[in-house]
Amino acid sequence: MAELLRPSQAASTLGRRRTVTRSLAASTPSRHKAVLTSGGVKAAEGSDAPETSRPLHFKLENSYRMKPQDEERFQAWKVEEVMGEVLKERLEGVTYDPDTCQDLAKDLASHVQRRVKDFRWQRYRVVCHVTIGQQCQQGLRVCSRCVWDHHVDSHASVTFHNKSLFAVAQCYGVYFE
């Protein structure tokens, strides 16, 4: 069955968000009767049409919430505690090796992101970045620039070092309107 995807007309006038909806008339031939269920489209009894498991898509209206409530704000101090715990428990006795530290940095970033998402701050997108390098008496500065609203968006940064390596973990909480 050919599937026709078209943008929702109400969303295209806003210019910001576009929602793709399925046209069931185009995907289900007229000789077959279909029943809509929460799991997808199901063929009616007595019909020879196959059952499909395509989910239904619902368009939700905009909430027009531009700022979070005070208790819903991204709290950098909580994130810094979590990142400090993760870096300390995972890097305490590790020695620097370029091949293993590459994978370790990715693993640490995903682990920090999972732990931060456990706070369940509504409508915040969480971005985590971990840098690991060798400790050999060199100087290094890690910085970043972001375009955001400083009233609702925030970040946290933690450093860790032992005799062999250093690690810088950064986590950004960006409010999604």
Q: What features would you describe in this structure?
A:
By secondary structure, the chain is α+β, with helices and mostly antiparallel strands. It has helices at residues 9-12, 24-27, 76-91, 98-117; strands at residues 5-7, 20-22, 34-37, 40-43, 124-134, 154-161, 165-175. Helices cover 25% and strands 25% of the residues. The strands form 3 sheets. The chain has a 3-stranded antiparallel β-sheet with strand order 5-7-6. Strand 3 and strand 4 (40-43) form a beta hairpin. The radius of gyration is 24 Å and the shape is elongated. The model is unreliable at 1-18 and 20-32 (pLDDT under 50).
Strand residues, percent: 15-25%
Number of helices: 4
Radius of gyration using CA atoms only:
24 Å
SS content category: alpha+beta
Order of helices and strands: EHEHEEHHEEE
Please state the overall shape, judged from the principal axes of the Cα atoms.
elongated
Weakly predicted, low-confidence segments = 1-18, 20-32
- Share of helical residues: 10-25%
**How far is the N terminus from the C terminus?**
37 Å
Overall residue-averaged pLDDT value: 77
Q: How many beta-strand elements?
A: 7
Identify the strand order in the major beta sheet.
Answer: 5-7-6
Largest sheet: 3 strands, antiparallel
